[in-house]
Write a structure and sequence with these properties.
InterPro entries: Ricin_B-like_lectin_EULS3-like (IPR040249), Ricin_B-like_lectins (IPR035992). This is PH domain-containing protein. It comes from Oryza meridionalis. The protein is mainly beta and 312 residues long. The chain has helices spanning 4-8, 175-179, and strands at residues 24-28, 31-39, 42-47, 57-60, 77-80, 85-88, 98-101, 113-115, 126-128, 134-137, 156-159, 168-172, 200-205, 208-213, 223-226, 243-246, 251-259, 274-280, 292-294, 305-307.
Length: 312
């Protein structure tokens, strides 16, 4: 029988299968020494303390494949480890962000947020699902005397202004997990080649996915197959989904959502008019355009790699 925490986080990155390296910290550019925390029933900034579980967060991506914001970014929820509270939208601009008990059995859109970019690499905004112009802000109120962010600063929802108090990062508390992409870079690497000419391998050149003469010393020809989502996501034939990440760049092969684009002659062809691109890989960002599956064995161990598109 699963324990209560496994039940609560069974579909999110708090589950051991999807988040083996632990929980996350969330901090803003205004002061990286302050982290999001639950204190006295409110969402505030607190002096970073890895031993304080009120500063530890689970990132739940249960609905991310089906629900996107207006820019196509997948949704997620942030759940506090110590309290089980999820960050909830405020009553409007300038109002404090609320907290609500997280229930994975219910669909509650007020706890769904999206990232403006890869918040594991760069600072960006954490926005409301249905209004990407409104996002988390650690802007000090008048009662703070305008002295900048500090321990105890209350988090509000404000309109986009590109300020440091609106710029956030979401990283593992574990430095090792951040350096190894949640342990992914410790996994064995593979070479990818096609039957047409087995002397060529899949590589990256000038930001393009292409084939090149095989070179075992070329890191750009080494790939990691991330199969963590395979147990939950399968194609129509029942084959598990996976992502392909380049070892040298840390980028994943991504099928562009823009149809009808021409494909460069050096690129590995288009897929039903979709371009193959490389995009920064984020362990906690579930995007169907980077998920692939393998077909049955077509002979001599060769398989057809296919893009697993989930049409909602």
């Amino acid at each position: 029988m699963p324990n209560s925490r496994e039940k609560v986080y069974g579909f999110g990155l708090g589950h051991p299968r999807l988040n083996p390296e632990g929980t996350f910290k969330v901090f803003c550019k205004a002061d990286e020494g302050l982290c999001l925390a639950v204190r006295g029933g409110a969402l505030v900034l607190a002096t970073a303390d890895p031993t304080d579980e009120h500063q530890h967060w689970f990132k739940d991506v249960h609905f991310s494949l089906r629900i996107k914001d207006e820019e196509g970014k997948p949704v997620f929820s942030l759940i506090n480890k110590a309290t089980g509270f999820a960050i909830q939208h405020s009553l409007g601009p300038g109002h404090p962000v609320r907290l609500v008990k997280f229930n994975p059995e219910d669909f509650e859109e007020s706890v769904l947020w999206t990232e403006s970019g890869h918040l594991g690499r760069d600072f960006g905004r954490i926005r409301m699902l249905y209004d990407v112009n409104l996002g988390l802000d650690a802007l000090p109120g008048n009662e703070d005397g305008g002295g900048g962010v500090r321990d105890g600063t209350v988090i509000t929802l404000t309109e986009r202004a590109e300020g440091d108090t609106q710029s956030w990062k979401i990283l593992y508390w574990s430095d090792e997990a951040n350096e190894t992409c949640g342990g992914l870079y410790n996994e064995p690497t593979c070479r990818i080649y096609c039957k047409a000419n087995m002397a060529f391998s899949l590589t990256v050149r000038n930001g393009t996915v292409c084939l090149a003469p095989t070179d075992i010393n070329d890191k750009y020809q080494e790939w990691i197959e991330d199969t963590r989502l395979g147990d939950m996501i399968k194609d129509q034939e029942g084959y598990p989904a996976f992502a392909l990440i380049n070892c040298a760049t840390g980028d994943a092969i991504h099928a562009s959502a823009v149809k009808g684009n021409p494909v460069k002659s050096s690129a590995v062809g288009a897929l039903f008019g979709f371009l193959l691109e490389l995009k920064p890989y984020n362990l906690t960002y579930v995007d169907e355009f980077r998920l692939w599956t393998k077909s049955r064995d077509m002979g001599e161990g060769f398989r057809f790699d296919q893009w697993e598109y989930h049409d909602s």
